[in-house]
Amino acid sequence: MAEAARRADTIAGPTWILAGRQLQARGRRGRPWLTTPGNLAATLVFKPWATPHEAAKRSFLAANALYQALAMVAPGARLSLKWPNDVLLNGGKVAGILLESASSGPMVDWLAIGFGVNLAARPAVVSDSGSGEPVTLKAETGVTIAPADFLVLLADAWATQEAKLAAFGFQRIREDWLEHAARLGDVIVARTTTAEHVGVFETVDMDGNLVLATAEGQKIIPAADVFF
Question: Is the pTM of the predicted complex or chain greater than 0.90?
Answer without folding.
Answer: yes
